[in-house]
Amino acid sequence: MLQFQNLTLIHQKDQFRLVDSLTGVVHPGDKVAIIGEEGTGKSSLLKWLCRCPEVNDYLEAQGSYQCTFQQIGYLPQFLPNKEEPLSVYDFLFHNLDANEIDYSYLAKLASDFQLDQDFLYSNQEMGTLSGGQKIKIQLMKILLHHPDILLLDEPSNDLDYESIQWLENFIRTSDLAILYISHDVVLLKNTATSILHLEKIAHQQRAVVHFVKEDYQTYIEQRKSAADKQLQIALKQRSEDKKRNAQLQQVKQKVQHQLRTTKLDTKGRLLAKKMANLKSREKRFEKERAQFAEMPQQEEAIGLKWQTVQAVPSSKPLIHLENDQLKIADKILVEPLDFTFFGQEKVGIVGNNGIGKSLFLHKIAEMLQKRTDIQMKYMPQNYFEALDTTQSPVAYLLSQTKQDQATVTTYLGSLQFFVQEMQRPIAYLSGGQRAKLVILGLLLSQANVLLLDEPTRNLSPTSNQVLTQQLQQYNGTLLTVSHDRYFLEQVCEKIYQLDKTGLQRIF
């Protein structure tokens, strides 16, 4: 059992409350979905619960917390840097007694995740795996230790469709308590039995926690219904108050005028008494006003507007591959590889984990970087490749663009970064905030060719929708890898499936 009583997590640097007064209980078998916009403290909460040493550098805790679970399994949002050089074999079986390993269970997990069993014993470094392969291997390692509670940070990130189906079924049917962060609406609808919603409202200055024993769909519908009802009540109260206050002021002005002009003592006394009654009523209105229903406060959507760029002519070929191949070291992943890419096209790439989608995008990026007739920008799947995590968001954008600090700060504010976050090292930002930062750098660069590797993977549904709408309107050229079918169908005019025999157009 996990029990929270007014648990509050405070960022030590600026004393901002990431989590404020969390109270509730998690029982065995509960499936608690942790939701919220980017930067609301979701990952920090999971790290604190599993006692990750890194949170001691920036988090202070107040309130009480009790855990009776014996074995916690924690999946971080990103594979730790120190584990990237490890081989798959060393990563999986380090600290495991060979006699204690359930090999039949291991074989079942490999089958569920569509991994060759020989791959589990390979010397390939973890850092060279695809994003989906990293998630699968980490989940397998966690499950081999037989935890009684799981803390999963974006577990569906980078997984292919079949693996997401397995993950969904596992979460839904498991007897374990599972707390998981996700922006995958379908996964949330099909698995959650409780919702822990972290928000920042009042222009990102106040943290609010909602912890309810409801499924995701019910929570969202009731939240909207309650907000709509509260808004109607609040608007009606303010409208009626405005009318009665206007009437009161009219009467007051009339009485004041009569007081100034009357010369009769008796009438003056009556008018003075009437004015006292009016002022008493005014004070009563003020007290009633303090009891009015608050206007609903919810998180604001990000403000993102892609500017018009100097488009590459649609007749201009950017890439032409014929009988090419994709390979890692001496291992050929895809052959033959044929691909032609023109200006102003918007093309999506899908495929199973480990087939080489990110490798393909990186190959294209290297080819396009050599060209001087276009302005290309590349968003890697691993944000650390694009970001210096010792820099602040402001410093990063100043180094990447020609914008001044005031402009950069304004843009960051429109993406719901509050002032303190703009000056913190990027290392302290959430995955979603890092994604927004990289995307903002692309926007400000005025690039007319974009290569995006899983651009929506760490974004909330709200931010995802904004990015999708903006890329629909983007007049430049786009090549993107994604497992987000909705994003692909809304943005891309062509979608290709990558497998070991090459690229096949499916849309």
Automatic annotation (TrEMBL):
Domain ABC transporter: 2-225
InterPro entries: AAA+_ATPase (IPR003593), ABC_transporter-like_ATP-bd (IPR003439), ABC_transporter-like_CS (IPR017871), ABCF (IPR050611), P-loop_NTPase (IPR027417)
Molecular function in Gene Ontology: ATP binding; ATP hydrolysis activity
Keywords, ordered alphabetically: ATP-binding, Nucleotide-binding, Repeat
Origin: domain of life: Bacteria
CDD domains for this protein: ABCF_EF-3
Protein name, entry field: ABC-F family ATP-binding cassette domain-containing protein
Organism phylogeny: Bacteria, Bacillati, Bacillota, Bacilli, Lactobacillales
